[in-house]
Amino acid sequence: MPFNILIVDxxxxxxxxxxxxxxxxxxxxxxxxxxxxxxxxLDLLRxxxxxxxxxxxxxxxxxxxxxxxxxxxxxxxxSIPIVVISSEGSRKRMEQLRENGVQYxxxxxxxxxxxxxxxxxxxxxxxx
Amino acid sequence: MTDxxxxxxxxxxxxxxxxxxxxFCELAPKNExxxxxxxxxxxxxxxxxxRTGEIALTMPAELCEEIAGNILGGEMDNxxxxxxxxDSLKELLNIYAGNVLTSLYGDEVSFDFDAPExxxxxxxxxxxxxxxxxxxxxxxxxxxxxxxxxxxES
Lengths: 128, 154
What we know:
Shape of chain B: globular
Strand content of chain B: 25-35%
Helix content of chain A: 40-55%
CATH architecture of chain A: 3-Layer(aba) Sandwich
Number of domains of chain B: 1
Oligomer: heterodimer
CATH topology of chain B: Chemotaxis protein chec
Distance between the termini of chain B: 17 Å
Largest sheet of chain A: 5 strands, parallel
CATH class of chain A: Alpha Beta
Number of strands of chain A: 5
CATH architecture of chain B: 3-Layer(aba) Sandwich
């Protein structure tokens, strides 16, 4: 079954890098949706069927932490796995994200292998 | 700025450029920062938290395109690469900021970053940055680039 993936990041080059990295994995891709901040991400999540979110933290308008909080408050969205991709290494921030159900965290700069591994973990049984 | 802080700033930049853009970077004395380039890109990020400060990276516009090309592979033409050039510098600064602040202050503190600002510089602007005592010179793939870091306790 192909996976629909949402990329949320305010950098165009990160969207291009993640799309390339996803295409290099053995994941069967469906649609890749693109949002430039958390607000756009939430809007896309409410309008489309998304299997996994890859999101940055620091973004204008609505950051990744607030988007994750909003997703977890929404009954129809709360089960979607979210992988946070950020350059930040703060334990406090990671704790805050874990409290909101984010189990997967990739530190920038990332490699396609790391993306593949985290998606496998995040998707669990659905991946196989 | 102590020698140890400067060493950390440069080491993290070397590591990030290698991992993010497959580019080689080394510390360079200021008298080796002469360049024929006339267009430069300056990216500045401010952070707040246990410390407040600024991090800036400045490089010739052509080097930004080279970095974007390294990141995205060789299949893009120059028009497409120039579209990504400034963004590649902004993202490098973002990645650098997150990693260098952890290296300097540990992972027990967290920082809030403002989105990096980008502006174009001419040779006068480039030279005035070189003259700034807080500026550190580096060579990225043998092309001069500038790093500037300042922080104070909040």
